Amino acid sequence: MAAGLLLVLSGPSGVGKTTIAHEMLRRFGGHFSVSATTRAPTNEEKNNVDYSFVSPEVFQQMIDQKLFIEFAQVFGRSWYGTPRQPVDAALARGELAVLDIDVQGAELVRDKYPDMLGIFILPPSEESLLTRLRQRGREDESAIQRRFRESTVEMQRARDNGIYNAFVINDDLTAAIEEVALLVSEKLKTHITQRAH
Length: 197
What we know:
Elements: E1 5-10, H1 17-28, E2 31-32, E3 36-37, E4 52-53, H2 56-64, E5 68-73, E6 79-83, H3 84-92, E7 96-100, H4 103-112, E8 117-122, H5 126-136, H6 141-161, E9 166-169, H7 173-196
Parallel strand pairs: 1-7, 1-8, 2-7, 3-4, 8-9
Antiparallel strand pairs: 3-6, 5-6
Helix pairs in contact: 1-7, 5-6
């Protein structure tokens, strides 16, 4: 059994997952898993900080070499994958490893790391999710509507698939962070107790 704790955070775009993930690392230390992707970066994104931006050829080589915990083509467009080595290294060091991935990815991770802590971050309502997507100002209305439809499907899949330990509603970011921190802290305690026996 890995010594560390694997925390998988999922939720629709704009729900605050990344902010929550980084706050967990600030509190508990550990490693944030930077996903590899074949999509182009936005103006704000930094390579190897937000994502590792790679060509489709490099991504295919990584698949062939079995370097991913999980990978998928998202919405029939770009490929995303979670590199295995940094996550396994963090767990071997007894650290917290945090993954910010979609439901499909989380299902694959649960198969390989059955004692992961899976938390799904929900918006207070579907209307508030739509508002948040618009406020990000990153996409035109048709792209926002498509992302919104994809998000509602993903939220339903998360409720149905039984792989998440908890659902946290991000109505108030501070409260959501505290709720996730409590779940992580409790899981770390049981983890340490199990290792002691």
